[in-house]
Records
---
Amino acid sequence: MKFYDCSSAPSPRRVRIFLAEKGVTLPSVQVDLRGGAQLTAEFGKLNPWCTVPVLELDDGTAISEAIAICRYIEEAYPDPPLMGRNGKEKAVIAMWEHRCEMDGFFAVAEAFRNTAKGLKGRAMTGLAAVEQIPALAERGRLRVQNFFKAMDVRLAESEFVAGPAYSVADITLLVTVDFAAGAKLEVPEGLTHLRRWHAHVSLRPSARN
């Protein structure tokens, strides 16, 4: 297998943390996103959506999207389980991971991609040129703050996002919080439960990836 990565991008970091938690190391290829390597015809044959991460299997099958890659890794390396051990756990973890991705990660991306100077004309991933929309950036910032409040409520009642054990939902939230900080969207000091959780999971060796 070969892992197509970009060390500065948040999406592949989710997979790197997942792999580290599993104790799995894969050969990797750094994709120069700033240089537009993801937009080349060669990379397009691997992933027509022009994004990283991508996992290329030994038979040539290419899997894009962080959670799809994590799903494959979970099946190939089931221990420790990060996506649940039974039907109930799998469903609950998938539910919380989806909310972290949709309400958090994508909201940060909406705010970031519609304001970053280096992304003018590139407000969305893919080949099409899409102009930045300031109103979407503002909406993204509001969504992020609402998401942080919701996660603070959740983490007041649960040690980890999806229950008593660390899971892929925690990975998505960790990367989201760090991605947001890089976009100058810090977790407010009053959200003590989210801040406590973030300090705790950031001490895990996998978080250095």
Note: The two ends are 19 Å apart (CA to CA).
---
Amino acid sequence: MKQVTASRAGHHALQDQGVIGIIGLGIMGGVMAQELLKAGSTVLGFDIQKAAQQRLKKMGGQPLGSVAAVAERSDVLIVSLATTGALATVMAQIAALPKRDKSRQLIVLETSTLPIGDKEAAQALLKKRGITLLDCPISGTAERMKQRAWTVYCSGSEAAWKKTRAIFQVFTDNTPYVGVFGNGTKMKFAANHLVAIYNVACAESVTLARKMGLDPQAVLDLFGNSQVIGTGVMRLRTPFMIKREYLPATMKVEVWQKDMQVIGDMARAVDCPTPLFNACAPIYSAAMAQGLALEDTASVHEVLGGMAGLPPRRKKTSA
């Protein structure tokens, strides 16, 4: 009941946010657009994929033809991108817009998981144009958002965070302000560092259960909600492993490889040893090599299963 009340309060506060634009209408951007539209917001959007543009239109949003067109008409702009190249391109197009008067300054909410240096460069570029950029990466998948289980790590201008917090409260009650610009990304790195390890640990556990002749579903039923060893990663990813079916993906292996790279780079930059994280990296690389790039990261179970001599999974045949 508490979550429903908080959600309704967030929806009501959206009336003060004006037009919301979204750049990047993939898995995460698409679900954000959907929920904002359900909450009664006016949502504009752009994505380089025509299918994503069409999905937004079917939801009741307004797809536009460019980043600039969306940014120009928006009061708040959410950015959800997969690569540093995309970030640089999008930010350059936003910075090229004519300056607005002070009464209608644009606030940009950058939600991607990308290197801090690239985000800091974007912040500096937009600041010259009177545009505030917040660093607000999200922990959680599109599926987890349905349970209001996202955490949004908001960093940068505290005043801008307070002004736009109601947008993120449509998705979750967990929208902490974590300090200066960049702290949000650092928090996300710390979170994803654990997710990388937990996911492989779950795959290893399911493989061990199968090798011992246990029913992995019985193992999940017993362990999943344990206050000692149960985790959200276990509850989300183990069902994929039990069925040995990894589509539709909540996080694609090929996208996760980017996260692994930026977390590893950060650890090296601060001289932090990460032996468990480093041990997981080849498992994800093997998943890529085995043709699992577009499948859920839970598919690392197939890598470990193959190493353990489990029979290959049965592939579905068309009727």
Note: The chain has a mean pLDDT of 93.
---
Amino acid sequence: MPTQSLERELQADVVVMGGGIAGLVAAVRAAQHGLRPIVLEKLTDARYVCNSRITGGIFHFANLSILKEPALLARQIIEGSDGTADPALVQAVTADVLRAVRWLQSLGVRFIRASGADYQAFVLSPPAVQHIGWPWRGRSGDVLLPILETQLGRLGGQLLRGHRVTGLLMHEDRCVGLRGVDRNNNEFRVQARAVVLADGGFQANHGLLRRHVSVRPERLVQRNAQTGMGDALGLAQSAGAAITDCSRFYGHVVSRDALENELLWPYPWLDELSRSCVLVGADGRRFVDEGHGGVHIANQIAQLADPGAAVLVFDQPAWDGPGLERALSPNPFLERIGGTVHRALTLAELARHCGLPADALETEAANYNAALASDTLAKLSPPRTTGKFIAWPIRTAPFYAIPVAAGITYTMGGVAIDPYSRVKRADGSTIDGLYAAGSCTGGLEGGPRSGYAGGLCKASTTGLRAGEHIGAMLATAEPGTATLS
């Protein structure tokens, strides 16, 4: 006879679902306003492995330094999303992103300026390193999260591990708490004056991926902590929340062998080669405009009938060019750790190695080379843009082919929020008492070219704005009297 679980009642000013960067930032900022927050984290380990813990640690918006003018950052995000991003939300987060980072610094979070691109002006310290096997312990997010947790405790808040949220508590269209089960399968309820959903994207949930992203989610490489199940998405919908387009994700082009070989993710990725050369499907034909970059290419691979059928094709100069661009580059590291790299003296022979139709691949390469030579790449189908990245010809033997896959890091769409991180309904009104922050939210990223804003800046800024709005509304109000409007 099954044991009946015991229900535990907790009280808080603010209850947060998710112990990543967004959730902890919201909780700490609310606590600084004198409120009592509780953060519920479903994982049980002291070092619970979420995307925030294993992050690369670069704080940027749309591959621009957050030291840039907010108007420039906003324009870059809007353009990258092809106008699908919410202008009011974009304006709010770009105006506050530098303040959010300065606030983290005030808590003791350390940053360095990397020696690479301009957008690496703020990198978590000690920095994550590109290394086989991804050694995240003691670096980047693994240092940031304990700092936030310590600050939360000092301010009177709590982080409860092993507490999985299963539902919202609603009263007269207002969210008044959360319910769930703890690690011992005992039920609990947290009554609160405000609720923040911040459990990340749905990148590890095959059912949601199949509905929104890919017909074959098992053929996507989980380039993430594999804990993001999208629970907040369903909870918000149950309360009447609007959901933005969820068909895009942030990720990279990786070796298809990464589906079986864990050493091949998160690095080396194949973005530099992919955006410079040619991607073909099982029919030997191009299927994507490679000039839009690695995140877009990864999304287009995911949308194939078989996302495991894509092949990257290039020649010797490209292997010695973009193939060497990164610190942990595919040349030579991919083969050293078990990744497949085909070589051949002719394209026909290369096609046989890859199981592609030789005539189709030879024709595609000839058409591509001719268009490149005559500056008519835009007339190809699909077109090949060159505004951001140079197109390399495929002329010089030996020729190369790498079977590739889409590596998914986090999903871009989700719960619709306003500039204060309040959850919105389809008519634009907000659900009283309910907030969302971080990767479970939409409105900043996506669009036809899979425009990428930046997960860490999105998480910290939407979390900060949620905590501040809750604090401003509740800090001086009597319990049970505040209306979050």
Note: Confidence is low (pLDDT under 50) at residues 479-485.
